[in-house]
From TrEMBL:
UniProt protein name: Acyl carrier protein
Classification via Pfam families: PP-binding
Sequence ranges assigned to domain Carrier in this UniProt record: 34-113
Species of provenance: candidate division CSSED10-310 bacterium
Length: 116
């Protein structure tokens, strides 16, 4: 006969088995997202030949906070991203509000990578 204590222990074990993998998945997703954002910063620096180090862009959410993004710079940046991540941007994603925002851009690129 199973007691309430044994049932509670089994329930606690079940919760632990469910939560730990979910937490690990969340950590992996966050690490992937952060790594993706770091790659985007590197592409920006190299494609626009900026005299910046990746660390100087720490905490930036808008990529043009330190410098302006004119149409030529956007084109070079988009081409650099397409080469780095080996895909072609869908038309709806070539939008200044997406291109200049690091989190939106990372989400867009992750979506494009999944589709390709």
């Amino acid at each position: 006969m199973i007691t309430n204590f044994e049932t509670a222990c089994h329930f606690d074990l079940l919760i632990i088995l469910l939560i730990v993998p979910l937490n690990q998945v969340h950590k992996n997703v966050m690490n992937d997202h952060n790594e993706l954002k770091n790659k985007i910063k590197r592409v920006l620096i190299t494609s626009l030949e900026l005299n910046l180090h990746e660390n100087e862009m720490e905490g930036l959410s808008e990529l043009d906070e330190l410098f302006g993004l004119d149409s030529l710079a956007i084109l070079e940046f988009v081409l650099g991203l397409e080469q780095e991540f080996n895909f072609t941007f869908e038309t709806q994603y070539i939008d200044l509000e997406i291109i200049r925002n690091l989190d939106r851009l990372a989400a867009c690129i992750a979506d494009q990578i999944k589709k390709s």
